[in-house]
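User: Teach me something about this protein's shape.
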Amino acid sequence: MTVDPGADRAVYKQLADLIRNQIKSGELPPGRRLPAQKDYMQEHGISRDSVERAMQVLRSEGVVVTDRRGSYVRSGDELVEVQVEQGRITARMPSEPERRDLGLTEGVPLLVVTGADGSEQVHPADRTVIMVNMS
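Assistant: First, the predicted structure itself:
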């Protein structure tokens, strides 16, 4: 798959699709650093803005994380299991302080687990596996 600037689909979406497919196929495994923006620019003949927009899409999906050293495929070992016996689970977008405190990228929702006693726990939706006790 290549990025075609003459196609009807925006180039940043094409690049996001390409990277997403490389992650799904295992070509870019969890924890792997993605190529630098300039590499994507040169390889596909696209602008820095298009590469940044593609990365923003992938970050908002929780597929990629970015720090000051670059962008990486999200590692599966970041998942946390949460046991739920009674209560309910809802989803909502975090407040800005919650987003900062939990280290969430923009666009990642929270899972709110409300216990039978009314207590609430919030968990990042992109790193949480809910385990329901059916007994």
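Now, about its shape. The two ends are 47 Å apart (CA to CA). The chain has two domains: 11-76, 79-132. If you'd like, I can walk through any region in more detail.
User: That's plenty for now, thanks!
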